[in-house]
Amino acid sequence: MSDCVTDYFYELPQELIASRPLARRDASRMLVLDRASGQVSHRMFADFPGFLRPGDHVVLNNSRVIRARLLSPETHIEIFLLEPCGDRRWKCLTKPGKKTRVGAAVPIAGTEARVVEVLPDGERVVEFAREPDLEKFGHMPVPPYFNRDSDDSDDERYQTVYAAVPGSVAAPTAGLHFTGDVLARIPHSFITLHVGAGTFRPVKTGSIKDHVMHEERYGISAEAAEALNAASRIVAVGTTAARVLESRGETTLSACSGRTDIFIYPPYEFRRTGALLTNFHLPCSTLLMLVCAFAGRGPVLRAYQEAIRENYRFYSYGDCMLII
To answer: Would you say the pTM of this structure is higher than 0.85?
Structure first.
């Protein structure tokens, strides 16, 4: 076990960061890591259904990404919505901070946003004169490592085909590979976890144990709980689905909703997640730490080095990794 954040660092060539999706969602490559042997094999995502065993059940996050990035051309202020927190009020990030102190009023998104509170972590609570029309004025919150603004293609591709419940400010990216045809071939259910910006915030403490995890909202339906309870093995699509599964302490799942700040890192022992499909994650990120907890830091980082040697595409629009 390692508590040191830098033990989760790896060097990634810039050219392997995928800033655009492939033409077809299901055309990605898939690195397969066997937890028992540490063996790595190279397959295609289209092979994913063939790795399921009788009694397996796949669980996916059906949260929908909102157009969370609002821009004010008049004041050159950006408001990045995080989550609603009351009538016409949103918790958000703003920049520049010096222009968004308490009382500041910003004309934006066809309305006006007034800063009513500055939270200890620098986030703002803003109150809109009327709810902003996100579909008309908002921009898709694509990751900053794309080094570009969002465009029309991101409206479709930075969203899973099964996205249904609005609330995320980042895509549950392991699900971006799925098509309706693939879903039709596998036993599956949906849960919801609204991905927050904190998912991608760097760990700034030297020791993992000192990092404070952000909270995210989640929900499990009665139908999904019943199917997952009956499964012989649960295959989680993405770290978000795994976090929901591992957040529930009871032996038998039931319909529920709540908030979770679970931080999973080695030597965490998974209780429900039996296999994990995930994308390749940023160095030293909490997402990479979760994957290392599932399959071991050494095997995961060796698999990442293999993926780099084989020129896999990394991050949100990149290839995927199946851990069995």
So the answer is: yes
